[in-house]
Amino acid sequence: MSDTGQSVQSLKSKLPNPITADNVRYNPSFSELREFSRELETTAEFGSASYVSRERSRNSDKTRNAVDEGFDADDYAHIEDAVEFAREHEMLCVDRLMGRHTDHSYRCRLYVPKKYGRIALAWANLFEPVEEEGEPDFVTIQVPDWDEIAVRVLPEEGVTVALGSDYTGEAKKSFLRLFMFHAKRKGGLGLHAGSKRVTLRDETGDLRDVGQVFLGLSATGKSTLTAHGLWLDDPESATMLQDDVCALLPDGSVAGSEGNGLYVKTIGLDADEQPAMYDAVTHESAVLENVDVDDDGTVDFDSDLHTSNGRAIIRRDQLSSSSEDIDLERVDQLFFITRNPTMPPVAKLSPEEAAVAFMLGESIETSAGDPSKAGESIRVVGTNPFIIGSRGEEGNRFRSLIDDLGVETYILNTGHLGGKDIGVTESVTLLREIARGTVEWTDDDASGLTVPSSVPGIDIGEFSVADNVDDHDSELSRLRTERRVHLDTFEDLDEDIRDAVY
Questions:
Q1: What is the pTM of this model?
Q2: With CB atoms 3.0 to 4.6 Å apart as the test, which of 50, 83, 116, 498 could cross-link to 288 if both were Cys?
Q3: DSSP H helical segments within 282-375, as ranges?
Q4: What is the pLDDT of residues 362-376, one digit of tens each?
């Protein structure tokens, strides 16, 4: 293959035709997919399938894309190897639809070896069935039994190969990565984010909708907060639209990607704090991955026997806080989720400060990213490890969109402030009252940010930066210097964003 690569049409012509090839089973039923991996299954007490994979997280350090890295002969050889494997071995081929928005929906095709039907079973539960035969927009070939791990992405052509990994998340993100890349090409911005619609009574008693979007790294509380009902009573409600990836569009709407299911963290899942999520995870339709399940089916969500990155693929129709819709009509409020221990529980940001937050992407590494560094401080632009292309241009696009649309932006700390824990109760209360418009704000001398002075239901004075962070002046001064140095590494980033460092 030449260094300039190969068109997706040429690649597709080399892949086995899923309709006619003797070595391919096309779109098997869920029961058939489960049967193909029966010997790998432990049946959970709820009747759901449970599997343990060899790889327990994405292999980000083994992933390369042709836009950012510039492929060489070895990279293209990996793609050729995957195509050849698909031609010569017994394979499953599953087509699904990602997204419903007219300009942001894509036919996706996954090839996996038949014995790894569990990967196809999990993945197929996330996206919606296609109605008729057709050619795919995006194709992924996943070959778990390979002598090395290599994930190679041709973004322009919509092709991914994942060699050596049997982790479901590798298949899921192969398509969502391309969803975000193509959203940017169409004038929007792909976000590693969840979205929800909050319906509240206004001061006149009429119901109004508030659109919220949550950006955060995996395992920082994004799914929990997106799916939470905010303790609202009918006719008020909080309804999840998307859990993981969506696209902010120039008209203010947010296009969803996953229409059938969600891929959620299970470690520490609590029936009292997350009743809707717990009910969905413990339904027989769920697929558990790397969760501690005994031979007799007993499930322990608190155990990290296999990994703290235990997962469940759940059906949207089993999550009571989930909407049938996946697209948000308009975003009003956008929240960055952080675990930075110097940040207040919430701060309100200007468009330029929001762009700084986007570029900093400050959080704590989790087991979903690099398990060997879990707990360490980390910076990921847009809290999105799947960006393809210039990070600086990504930040400029983000600032322009939220500024033009008048989106309120906030940064939400879901970890702890100094040594003081910020729990789900505080975070949920803040989200509800910010949506209501009942929070009063003030400028905080210690952090230099706009923070709440009054929040119904919370003694917000207990969460001051000055009282909870030791030697906060020197600590925050050090952080600001680090942040400026970090932003200077992005040559394409607009100067007024660099100057807004907090």
A1: 0.93
A2: 50
A3: 351-360
A4: 987 766 556 666 778
